[in-house]
Amino acid sequence: MSQSSHTLVKHRVAWFISPHGFGHAARAAGIMAALHSIDSSIRFEIFTTVPSWFFQSSLSGPFTYHSLLTDIGLIQKTPLREDLNKTLQYLNDFLPFDHSRISSLSQLIKRSRCELIICDIAPMGISVAKEADIPSVLVENFTWDWIYQEYAGYDVQIEKHGVYLRSLFDAADHHVQIEPVCRYRVADLTTLPVSRKVRTPASQIRKELGLPCGSKVVLITMGGIQQHYTFLEELANQRDVHFVVPGGSQAMELRDNLVLLPHHSNFFHPDLINACDAVVGKLGYGTLAEVYHTGVPFGYISRPSFPESEILAAYVEKEMPGIAIEEIEFQAGTWISHLQDLLALPRIQRSGPNGAEQVARFVHTVLDGED
């Protein structure tokens, strides 16, 4: 699938993106958009199983989408719980990479005339870059070997997969770490959080959502994984607050003080966050970064057994206005008792750069060096 442009293409960059949630795709898209604003002659070749609509809604520059399973990561039972049995089963089938698959992909990369491969923690791209004899850039706030070592006690095989993946990550030609970083290593660049940029003024988004002027608005989001909410009736009782709930309905529906949206709606997620007075949701990288840059208070639900979660929570506590919400509170709806405390937190006006711009400038420098 291709998104065309009449601009003369000078550079072609391939992007291998982990499909673990939408956070990796969101920050990759943020960097792509920033890179295209620097140099409109760049075309992207995107490899992932994150749906193509996600990139169509996130990017205005030209790209070609390739549906490819680039990474296993962790298989999720729910947005907050992983399935280790299924994860290990998938990893055993997926790793080590089949050389014929890597060779075939490298030929595709050569035919596409790509000069660089960027990997958002999908190390398949690093292997393909080596085979195609072009440079690679690893962009990460964690790598899977770090995650898997935390599950080593579950099965020795998952530790072996981590050792194999560590060798691939170490082979990247360039290394960018983005905050919040889970394990600091030698890197060419360390940046602020990376997110997609807000596009539409909050007032216009509120109008399109049918929200009363001056009303308090809270967004409830579980990132890229759909969730059934059992507390919608309790939200309807909070008459002085309006709630926007992506994934709450099959089509946009206004129900008293609730705005229920489909999982894939016409609203750009950073715009929804920016239009609200607070966000309640899963503590994933994509949501954290978008909340960070809009500065709104964050009622965050950690993933108890996921190693990244503790790092992200510490970052929120240090750098962002927020309140921790336990998973059991969220599922039962008792988190609503914290609502006024969350809304009382001040919104922060950010003055620093978006990490997407920092990474884009670095990548453009690498591309110029390859001319």
Keywords:
alpha/beta; Rossmann fold; 15 helices; 39% helix; 20% strand; globular
How is this structure best described in words?
The chain has 371 residues and is α/β, with parallel strands linked by helices. It folds into 2 domains: 2-195 and 355-369, Glycogen Phosphorylase B (Rossmann fold); 202-344, Rossmann fold. The protein has 15 helices and 17 strands. The chain has helices at 23-38, 52-58, 84-94, 99-111, 124-132, 144-149, 156-170, 202-209, 232-236, 269-274, 285-294, 307-319, 327-332, 339-344, 355-369, and strands at 2-3, 11-17, 42-48, 63-67, 76-78, 81-82, 116-120, 136-140, 174-178, 189-191, 216-221, 241-246, 253-255, 258-261, 278-282, 298-301, 322-325. It has an 8-stranded mixed sheet. A 7-stranded mixed sheet has the order 13-14-12-11-15-16-17. Strand 16 (298-301), helix 12 and strand 17 (322-325) form a beta-alpha-beta unit. Helix 1 (23-38) crosses helix 15 (355-369) and helix 4 crosses helix 5. The two termini are 27 Å apart.
Short synopsis of the structure:
By secondary structure, the protein is α/β, with parallel strands linked by helices. Helix content is 39%, strand content 20%.
Helices and strands in order:
Layout: E1 2-3, E2 11-17, H1 23-38, E3 42-48, H2 52-58, E4 63-67, E5 76-78, E6 81-82, H3 84-94, H4 99-111, E7 116-120, H5 124-132, E8 136-140, H6 144-149, H7 156-170, E9 174-178, E10 189-191, H8 202-209, E11 216-221, H9 232-236, E12 241-246, E13 253-255, E14 258-261, H10 269-274, E15 278-282, H11 285-294, E16 298-301, H12 307-319, E17 322-325, H13 327-332, H14 339-344, H15 355-369
Parallel strand pairs: 2-3, 2-7, 3-4, 7-8, 8-9, 9-10, 11-12, 11-15, 12-14, 15-16, 16-17
Antiparallel strand pairs: 1-4, 5-6, 13-14
Helix pairs in contact: 1-11, 1-15, 4-5
